[in-house]
Design goal:
Elements (H helix, E strand, L loop, with lengths): L2 H12 L4 H22 L2 H18 L9 H20 L21 H18 L4 H12 L4 H8 L3 H21 L11
Helix pairs in contact: 1-2, 2-3, 2-4, 3-4, 4-7, 5-8, 6-8, 7-8
């Protein structure tokens, strides 16, 4: 959804046009679900977080001052709900993130490469779980949600420079862990 269109929809909802929220919910549910799934690796938990996020968005959209920052705002809500759930349940993030190198197309997946990819994803996620929480959140938002550093900073309420520092620190730590396990790290994206 285009940022400008998203802003208009948010404004419509703020002005009492609740039917516009359905469009927002349909658009954002898959992205928030995917984001929450990266934390828990469990469909039920991801669905619950996505639903709670949309409920909070609906309940609080009238308090959103800058409709242009809607993307950061919705991810901030989702991130906070994920962190709250992790603290409440005393759980660690699961091992379900998908880091198939972007150059590898689905048509190139053979049974062998698919198994190797699943094994690699599991190992990468184990390494990701070893990262400090603040660093891990930045890596997830950048690598999996493809957010800009400005958006990450806005989402996590940190300066853009801090987001960049945490990203590079996270990728360096991730790379070091993977190299200790003799895993190639050329596909880690430092951009």
């Amino acid at each position: 959804m285009e940022k400008q269109h998203e802003s208009y929809l948010a404004e419509f909802v703020q002005n009492g046009h609740d039917e516009s929220f359905q469009i927002i919910a349909e658009h954002w549910y898959p992205a928030i679900y995917r984001f929450a799934y990266s934390y828990f690796g469990n469909r039920d938990d991801a669905s619950e977080i996505a639903q709670k996020t949309l409920i909070k968005v609906y309940q609080n959209i009238r308090s959103l001052k800058e409709v242009g920052s809607f993307k950061s705002w919705i991810y901030r809500i989702a991130n906070n709900l994920c962190l709250d759930e992790l603290k409440r349940a005393g759980r660690r993030k699961s091992e379900s993130l998908s880091l198939i190198p972007k150059e590898l197309k689905l048509s190139e997946l053979t049974p062998v490469t698919e198994i190797e990819s699943k094994e690699l994803n599991s190992l990468i996620h184990q390494a990701l779980n070893r990262l400090p929480e603040q660093v891990r959140a930045v890596v997830i938002l950048k690598q999996f949600e493809e957010m800009t550093f400005i958006e990450i900073g806005d989402t996590l309420q940190i300066p853009e420079g801090t987001a960049k520092t945490r990203m590079y620190k996270g990728l360096d730590l991730l790379g070091s862990i993977l190299k200790q396990w003799n895993i190639e790290t050329d596909y880690l994206n430092y951009d």
